[in-house]
Amino acid sequence: GVYEIGQNGDMLLLYIEDLDMNKVNRLAQRLRGRIKVRSAGKPHIAVSMVPGDEQLELLTRIFGIFASSSG
After folding, report:
1. In this predicted structure, what is the pLDDT of residue 69?
2. Three-state DSSP class for residue 19
3. For 6-19, what is each residue's pLDDT tens digit?
4. Is the dihedral of CA 8, 12, 14, 20 positive or negative?
5. How far, in Å, are 44, 63 from residue 14 at the CA level?
6. Is 36 helix (H, G, I), strand (E, B) or coil?
7. CA 20 from chain center: how many Å?
8. Which residues are registered as beta bridge partners of 48?
9. What is the mean pLDDT, run by run of 10 residues, along the chain of 71 residues?
10. In this predicted structure, what is the pLDDT of residue 70?
11. Which end of the chain is more exposed for a tag (fewer CB within 10 A), N or C?
12. What DSSP character marks residue 34?
């Protein structure tokens, strides 16, 4: 799961314990062109924010996508 959330400029950073590629793929399909995955060092998913995005609304959307892809 996600154990830390950060922000670097216009990127939301979700630090995760285990990269579940099914969840990452689902997220990438829903947020086309806005996802970057880093598996080296401190693994995380970076989600690009676009003008009009609110942090909490975007996080709610991301976690909703993760929840819909489990089991």
Report:
1. 59
2. coil
3. 999 999 999 998 88
4. negative
5. 5, 10
6. strand
7. 11
8. 11
9. 95 92 93 93 95 95 85 49
10. 55
11. C
12. -
Q: What is the Cα–Cα distance from 13 to 57, expressed in whole angstroms?
A: 15
Angle 22-24-25 from CA coordinates, rounded to 5°: 65
Domain range annotation of the chain? 2-68
Residue range 2-68, CATH number:
3.30.70
Whole-number pLDDT of residue 27: 94
Contacts of 66 (CB under 8 A, 6+ apart): 23, 26, 27
| Structure tokens that stand for 45 in this block | 């998913």
Structure tokens at 62: 């991301």
- 3-9: long-range contacts at Cβ-Cβ below 8 A with a sequence spacing of 24 or more? 5/59, 7/55, 8/46
pTM beyond 0.70, yes or no:
yes
Q: How far is CA 32 from the centre of its chain?
A: 12
